[in-house]
Amino acid sequence: VMTLHVTESGQLWIGTRNHGLNHFDPASAIFTRFQHEPSNQASLSSNSVTTVLAEAEHVWIGTYGGGLNRLDLGSGSFTHYRHDGENDTSISSDRILAIHRDRLGSLWIGTEDGGLNHFDEDNGTFSRYQHDPEQDSSLGSDAAWDILEGSDGSLWIATKDAGLNRWSATDRRAGRPIFRRYLKQAGLISNTLHGVLEDDAGALWLSSNRGLTRFDPDLNYFRHFDESTGLPGKEFTFGARYKHADGTLMFGGTNGLIAFDPQMIHVNRHKPEVAVTALLQLSPVSKSFSTQPQPAHLSLDYRDHAVSFVFSALDYTSPKKNRYQYMLEGFDKDWVQPDGFRRVSYTNLPAGDYTFKVMGANNDGVWNDQVAAIRIEVLPPPWKSSLAYALYGFLLLGTLALGIRHQKAKFQEAEIRRQKLEALVEDRTQELQQQNRELATLSQQLEKASYTDQLTGLNNRRYFQQLMEAEMASLDRQLREKLKVGEAPASEDHSPGLSFIMIDLDGFKPINDQYGHHAGDLALLGVRDILRKCCRKSDAIIRWGGDEFVVVGHHTSHLGAEKYAERIRCELANHQYEVGEGRVARLSGSIGMTMIPFFPDSAEVLPWEQAINIADMAAYLAKENGRNAWVGLYGTPETTAAANITERIKNDIENLVQEGMIRVSSSLKTALNFSVTAKV
Fold first, then answer.
1. How far apart are CA 217 and CA 154, in angstroms?
2. Is pLDDT above 90 for 66?
3. Are 500 and 564 contacting, i.e. CB atoms less than 8 angstroms apart?
4. Three-state secondary structure along 476-539?
5. Contact 171, 159 (CB under 8 A)
6. What pairs with residue 308 in β-bridges?
7. What is the pLDDT confidence band of residue 10, given thresholds at 50, 70 and 90?
8. How far is CA 509 from CA 461, 501, 585, 651, in A?
9. pTM (two decimals)
10. What SS3 class is residue 227?
């Protein structure tokens, strides 16, 4: 289960990771399922449902990878809103994480990688609000994980890595996309927020992977809760939050569900005094308090290699939760938050003036704006004094004068030798450059010849083997990354994917027998021209041997590969092949194909050698069942990744097809005779 939504009438909508949307009617105790049906365009677009918003006539469903869906409760049909890279008014991403209807009736959609969207239901268009690295007032992150409209009309967006973002009601209604970001520097305990709720007093409650935070927008005040304040754990779950009608807030996490009344939680308002002590060799040498109007003073010489500072906030309600931030002015570029540590050391400070400052907050994050400070003067060692540097300067100038005189004489002597050698080197360099150019040209010619078929000029098997090593490595990496983030492809989805098309010419042998090998060579050149015409520049066309050719291409579905194969089949069959002396002949192709990934729901990648064998068996089926046809053999979600899959297809393909383990597609109008595969 990914998400739950309960309507005011008690109807329950349940979104699941891989099994679509379920509706439960408590009155009848009946579940109704809504799932993705590839053959039904009006069905749910994806079985991975992340968020649901049920209304009187429609149910809005957010999916992971299938965009936004609207279920018409009257007809039971779905309307899909998908991302279109060519249309700026489409939804910005198909990975939907949050859906929210504000009090003005506007529908807002949060996505994992496309930011925030506003949906205009009248004309079916989306307005996008995304992160702009060059605009500080833009949305802080394109991962908008949760959306809430506050009691003041502000729109709050919980993000990944960019904290809490606020779009005020004034700016939103004026159409000004100005977002204010609240990050760890402002007091958040984590920049990744899983959910946001508002209590009856107008305070926001934020769940994260580091605990629960209460945020008062009016006071700009954060208060954090974890195991030390009674929580069973600090790891909360994305989207697991609910506000009861009585004001009780509920959050779910890895340690179960918590429920609490926000009005029963009180705040420690005491601003603690801060004390800091400077130590040299573990002995205190200076002390300062935040109540002092001027900082204390400390002088260090070159023998004081290290200085330490120990500080403390004088609030004892929950001392372990007191917070600190410090800075050594002149050394640190910004305030440092030590996460509970109350001691810091600096070693080998360069000579100069510094001021160590420290601020403290109590267990509820109430900060004392007054700092405790110690001013430090680091004196330089004798060898770095002004007098020492003056002596160094005189010695350097004298040394340079002697060096210049000596080098001038050496340069004059070297110039004479250089001029003599220069002419000799120039002649020899020109000879070597000419030889290198000749060697480079010869090497390129040999390299090209080793990968090229001499007759057709197409790539040969050696080139194919080298190509597939790189292609398979890239495909394996992409598939594992896709499955790692939970993007299990549907059975027709082969993105990323490779298609293997094996072409076995029909009628080539009679041309050789009747007109001779020269005629056969002319026919093969004609086939080459047809393949180049039909294929894309990115496809690899291989002369496999004799009258067999292989085409390897990038396709996202078997339908695209089959359209490709049909075009090649038609072009081969309709072409008149010139075979010399004004004679023409006819050829056709028996075409077999398959695709990788062969196992749709597995990260296991079928070796390309087995894919070629399967395409070859498919071509043999096409030839033995009538020729001038194409046959495709594909894996299904039921196909298991096995090392002997090609042997099983060869010996038992008919049973594999009947059991749904192998799917067959063909241009033939009659049923295929599978018994011929055993002869391959």
1. 10
2. yes
3. no
4. HHHHHHHHHCCCCCCCCCCCCCEEEEEEEEECHHHHHHHHCHHHHHHHHHHHHHHHHHHCCCCC
5. no
6. 279, 345
7. confident
8. 22, 21, 12, 28
9. 0.49
10. helix
